[in-house]
Amino acid sequence: MSxxxxxxxxxxxxxxxxxxxxALAIWLDLAAEFAVLIGLLILLEQTTGEMDEAAATAxxxxxxxxxxxxxxxxxxxxSRGRSLGKLALGLRVVRTDGGPVRFRHALVxxxxxxxxxxxxxxxxxxxxxxxxxxxxxxxxxxxxxLVVRERVPGAGGGRAALPPLSPELMQGLGSGLVxxxxxxxxxxxxxxxxxxxxxxxxxxxxxxxxxALRLVGDLVARTGLAAPYGVPPAAYLGAVLAERxxxxxxxxxxxxxxxxxxxxxxxxxxxxxxxxxxxxAQEPEPQPTxxxxxxxPPA
Length: 299
Prior knowledge:
It is a single chain. The chain has helices spanning 19-47, 53-78, 84-89, 103-119, 123-131, 138-143, 167-178, 187-198, 205-223, 233-265; strands at 2-5, 11-14, 91-95, 145-149. By secondary structure, it is mainly alpha-helical. Helix 1 packs antiparallel against helix 2 (53-78), helix 7 (167-178) packs across helix 10 and helix 8 (187-198) runs antiparallel to helix 9 (205-223). The protein is elongated, with a radius of gyration of 40 Å. The termini are far apart.
């Protein structure tokens, strides 16, 4: 079991494939690719009998690159990491964050695999797989991928569609959620549950099922109550998260109602009227004193 951490700090428990199963899957893929290549070369020889030798050699090299590089890249891209050999042995190529591989991952794996598997007869791939704890070869290291086991003994596959829940089970799930004590659940676990439910469509079904089981186990350890029997782990996580959001919403509404009640019960403080400013009486301007009667100003 490899412990990989996503960009959202969620630890993934992925069961990586070992070297013997990977080597057998590669041999099956190479046998199918060489069979297709030999068939195309025979067809080319029969249809182009009078072609120039240089042109025939170029076409043969192009067919070899197409069958040994192009075909594996297309198969892994279209099948989301399941080639013929991996499908037979229950293996799958995924990204290191648990998501499905895309064209760029398959292209890097195909180009590097052509060098390490065919040019050097698989020696670099064997050495790198023995050194790596997850059994990754050079193509996986450069592409950021990992080969995991899809069919684990006793796991039941995990790829079947989720059956609809019965009304009795829904009723029991609702009553069980009300009795949960969510005060001991840390914020980090709530964050991991929200991020898992937000990107569940991007995860491989088997990987997502394993993550849901681990998150349910952590949640049960914090709440002290086991999950109801028959409820899918992803559905139980969504129900518990919805219950927490409902409680937060009711707590918020209760706080707002309490604030409104306190405002209504508070005494109204009457403000004293502001005294108006009285107009200031203006003093009359002094008038000039008239000269006394009979007084003549000097010449």
